[in-house]
Write a structure and sequence with these properties.
This protein has 675 residues and is an alpha/beta fold. Helices cover 36% and strands 21% of the residues. The strands form eight sheets. Strands 22-23-21-20-24-27-28 form a seven-stranded mixed β-sheet. Strands 4-3-2-5-6 form a five-stranded antiparallel β-sheet. Strands 8-11-14-7-15 form a five-stranded parallel β-sheet. The mean pLDDT is 87.
């Protein structure tokens, strides 16, 4: 037996199960995983092959005799009549009928909607009224000829929800201490049925993020990605405390039914997942409006009262385009329904955006044959951990950067808290381990903020998320992989002839490029590489014409006459926004001729006319913001834009050292640190 299996069986004795057994049994029985593992955990929690085989026979026998197949409903009803009573495993739903002034139970697979249910079960298990629960049910047949209203011969005598009876969190945390972080991550992946050897560290963390709503109150998560990546699996199979909605719903069902005075789903379940978020478009506007309010504070108004719910909200949707296309042509919320996509206040309430495009489609080889925790036990652990709070854990080692507003801070703290509950429930972690969680949390929230910036322009401009080490005072910036990050503009000096340049188009979009100029012996010709066209090509040709016209004045006549120049532009953001790069080109040429690098971390802004007059930028703020987000620490800025510098937010001013210039050659010398 592999070491991790042996350790899991030893430390979590009676609370682990071989996941291949689950799949084996599930093939013949369409019941949730937590139902199967409830049984397998009772009869197959051992490493003894003979005992496992015997346990499997018992489990199969129980399922064969007690689990009702939908197509055998009438046969089982007849059997209950003949025997007088029978024990079933079925999903039980309860509804109140005002005509009868009575609660009626529905046994889904048993196929009967009018089963008598004692009132104390309804009071004891609220979730019976809101979607139902899987349970072991003892049902009795007794026809009452004198009964009034609806007459039904079936009565529930006992009802035992399929979940563990008791849970000891202290014991769970003590067991966690026996595992290293890597071992625990692998055990958690196996708990949800996946083989960790197929996933790298980042993928493991993203898969675990999906479960934060199960352990964190009022957590709002969205995941958009390709089909078949298992987005909704945790909410359908792994916990009896979650509900998966696959179609439109109502305010009464989701929040509060004023007619019956019953709390809706948000007051009953730990987490509510919308499987196809596109279906939200079909829901009444009132549902989305109320949901928006709820996602902010966990409260909502119905009638005269303000009510509170603790349920987290997860939304899953499918993408029809690659992430590259969405980043370049629109935004990452494009698959969302218009009723949400166009409501930036709703989107701003999301705590984490899981990049579903990074998670591979589930294949057979991804499923594990090793031991993992019984999911029912794990679900109880996550539920118990909802009572605990780790939102202040960040403060042990780090402080958050100035770009995070109140909602950003809340989102990051809740994500870190949820990940600690999942990975470090005992509350013991190192500085580097916490930094890993913090960076992931900031990335997930920044992904939301970046899309809001695209949708709402300047209102959401502060996206340079960072955190500071309380000891070293070192500030670290966190980017998002699909849009580049803080390291696009290198903090190290570039080779001579290479510069970073940017400009803003008439729609407020920023083009960020690295210009590379190389020299060869020649007769003063300019050769422009493919990929540079339109506005950018014109600006470079105009700048070159200026250099040729002014070569005597600027003291470069001999060098310009005997050199051919090759220029290439690399689109660093991949958004195909053309760049007016005249000043950047002149600096690059000067750098190449002098064989001297420009200042490290320098972003060059501005263009010029054919006579050398400096053209100011359309907008300074957007260009500096993008530059800072991607690593710029200095900016070469036209003097004409100095008055616009007053419009630049203070946090940008603090991070970018401005260098103003009034003519092209001054720009070149300042860029090289000569002037």
């Amino acid at each position: 037996m592999p070491e991790l299996d042996r350790k899991a069986v030893s430390v979590f004795a009676g609370k682990v199960v071989r996941k291949d057994l689950v799949r084996k049994v599930k093939v013949g029985a369409n019941v949730p995983v937590f139902v199967l593992e409830y049984l397998l955990g009772k009869y197959c929690a051992t490493d003894d092959a003979a005992a496992i085989e015997a346990g499997l026979r018992v489990v199969n026998s129980i399922i064969a005799s007690n689990f009702v197949r939908p197509d055998e409903a009438n046969k089982v009803q007849s059997m209950v009549k003949d025997k007088g009573r029978h024990t079933l495993i079925d999903k039980v739903k309860v509804r109140y009928l005002s005509d009868d002034d009575k609660h009626w139970a529905e046994l889904v697979n048993f196929g009967h909607k009018y089963v008598h249910v004692p009132e104390h079960f309804v009071r004891e298990y609220d979730r019976l009224l809101m979607g139902g629960i899987w349970a072991q049910v003892e049902i009795r047949h007794q026809y009452d000829e004198e009964a009034k209203g609806k007459r039904s011969p079936f009565w529930i005598d006992s009802l035992k929800p399929i979940q563990i009876a008791t849970f000891d969190l202290a014991e769970y945390c003590a067991c966690r201490r026996e595992f290293s972080t890597d071992e625990w991550l692998d055990l958690l992946l196996r708990t949800i049925g996946l083989e960790p050897s197929h996933f790298d560290r980042r993928l493991k963390m993203l898969l675990l993020v999906r479960m934060i709503p199960l352990c964190e109150h009022n957590y709002n998560l969205v995941e958009l990605g390709p089909r078949g990546t298992g987005k909704s699996y945790a909410y359908q199979e792994l916990s009896p405390y979650t509900i998966l909605l696959t179609g439109p719903t109502t305010v009464a069902n989701l929040f509060y039914n004023m007619a019956t005075g019953k709390m809706g789903l948000v007051g009953i379940w730990d987490a509510i997942a919308f499987d196809e978020v596109a279906d939200l478009q079909k829901m009444p506007k009132e549902v989305v409006t109320t949901l928006k309010t709820y996602c902010e504070s966990g409260t909502f108004a119905r009638g005269k009262d303000a009510l509170t719910g603790m349920a987290s909200v997860a939304m899953f949707g499918n993408t029809n385009q690659s992430v590259d296309v969405m980043v370049r042509s629109s935004h990452l919320f494009q698959p969302m329904p218009a009723v949400i996509r166009e409501d930036m206040a709703f989107l701003d309430r999301l705590h984490f955006y899981v990049p579903g495009w990074e998670i591979p489609k589930m294949r057979v080889e991804f499923f594990t044959d090793h031991y993992g925790l019984v999911v029912d036990y794990f679900a109880e652990a996550l539920r118990e951990l909802r009572k605990h709070n780790f939102t202040e854990a960040i403060d042990r080692f780090f402080s958050l950067g100035s770009h995070l507003n109140a909602r950003d801070v809340k989102a990051v703290r809740k994500t870190v808290s949820g990940l600690i509950k999942i990975i470090y429930p005992h509350g013991e972690f190192s500085r580097n381990e916490l930094a890993e969680l913090l960076e992931l949390a900031m990335e997930g929230r920044r992904r939301v903020k970046e899309q809001l910036k695209k949708l709402g322009a300047f209102e959401y401009h502060q996206t340079s998320f960072s955190y500071m080490d309380n000891e070293t005072r070192e500030e670290r910036f966190v980017g998002v992989p699909e849009q580049g990050g803080q390291d696009i503009i290198s903090p190290d000096p570039l080779a001579p002839g290479s510069v970073y340049t940017a400009s803003v188009d008439d729609q407020g979009r920023v083009g960020l490029y690295r210009l590379e100029v190389s020299c060869s012996s020649g007769t003063g010709k300019l050769r422009v590489a493919g990929g540079i066209d339109g506005t950018m090509r014109e600006s470079i040709q105009r700048a070159f014409a200026y250099l040729i016209a002014q070569k005597s004045k600027i003291g470069l006549e001999q060098q310009l006459d005997s050199t051919d120049f090759h220029v290439e532009g690399i689109d660093l953001l991949g958004n195909h926004v053309p760049c007016e790069a005249g000043i950047g080109f002149i600096v690059a040429v000067y750098s190449a001729l002098k064989k001297q690098s420009v200042l490290a971390g320098l972003l060059i802004l501005g263009d010029l006319s054919i006579q050398g007059n400096i053209k100011s930028l359309r907008s300074l703020v957007e260009a500096l913001q993008v530059g800072m987000d991607n690593g710029a620490r200095r900016a070469l800025i036209p003097l004409e834009n100095k008055r616009n510098f007053l419009e630049v937010p203070g946090d940008i001013v603090e991070r970018v050292d401005p260098i103003f210039f009034s003519d092209p050659m001054t720009a070149a010398m300042k860029a090289l640190g000569i002037a």
